[in-house]
Amino acid sequence: MHYPLFRPRRLRETETIRRMVRETRLSVDALIMPFFVVHGRSVRREIDAMPGNFQLSVDELVKEVKDTAALGIPAIILFGLPATKDAVGSEAFARDGIVQQAVRAIKDSVSDLVVITDVCLCEYTSHGHCGVVEQGRIKNDPTLDLLARTALSHVEAGADIVAPSDMMDGRVAAIREALDDHGFEETPILAYAAKYASAFYGPFREAAGSAPQFGDRRSYQMDPANADEALREVALDLDEGADMVMVKPALAYLDVLARVKAEFGVPVAAYNVSGEFAMVKAAARLGWLDEERTMMEILTAIRRAGADLILTYYAREAARILRQQAG
Ligand code: PBG
Description:
The chain is of the alpha/beta class. It has one domain (23-326): Alpha-Beta Barrel (TIM Barrel), CATH 3.20.20.70. The protein is built from 11 helices and 12 strands. It has helices at 15-21, 58-70, 98-109, 141-157, 171-181, 202-208, 228-239, 254-264, 274-285, 291-305, 315-326, and strands spanning 31-38, 44-46, 54-57, 75-80, 114-119, 132-134, 137-139, 161-164, 190-195, 244-248, 268-272, 309-312. The strands form 2 sheets. Strands 1, 2, 3, 4, 5, 8, 9, 10, 11 and 12 form a 10-stranded mixed beta sheet that branches. The chain has a two-stranded antiparallel sheet with strand order 6-7. Strand 10, helix 8 (254-264) and strand 11 form a beta-alpha-beta unit. The longest helix is centred in the middle third of the chain and has 17 residues, at 141-157. The radius of gyration is 20 Å and the shape is globular. The chain starts with 14 loop residues before the first helix and ends with a helix.
């Protein structure tokens, strides 16, 4: 069956026929919108390298979250900036911490929205690392209890799903145990399972004020050169009780995403991170790329590679386009 018998172009001739044979469909149901919450009132501070994204006080956040939910986006993920930082990141697990306040406010005013919280210490620690520091090293086991307390405080405030992003070994088990011990055995864990030590987090660290004050995160986040190891990380997190797993970043790690989906068949999320967003924004501003087409192509590619869910700063723009397309 060679040319001229088989002509692939036959199925590309019109938009209608292309639509019929399309393999991957981007849906608003897959989108998760990240937000950054700060103390104060009426605060809307735009993040330099992330146009259209703001550090928001709770009152402003609630408004934006309502608009997001109204677009049909099913879930958001929250990151918090504390009033003060200390060595152990105390505000991360404080009852009245910023994320805990934000979750309560959102749950009071927006219905049918899944509220996910990022569970990590780096925004809250004075040294900016995701774990406890002793003699200049990031200690694994002393961190687990703090992460478990953080997750529990989020769930007590009303969070629907907790998403640990710290990359300490054993944290999924520690969080699962803490939740179960307090009657939250029904609350799912979305584990940032394969999270790489990536340069693509640059804009986020400005947004979340979470840059490490010494060294880097390479002793706990993964080496970008490794893919087999990602499968091991995912297997461990699933063993410890993770309900969903994440690959992060997305675009430079589509091979990892495809392997994770094929190997485990569990719900997989991909984080289209701040640097990936900033690259498209910057090129679009220079007139070098068509923003809308580039964004939709990237999100479709992430889905095609195996992501069921996509965390993306483009969630609202994409949802608007998908709505238009649906007519
Ligand atoms: C916190 C965390 C980071 C991101 C999500 N959670 C930053 C980091 O690990 O330094 C990055 C998200 C993004 O770049 O959009 N541990």
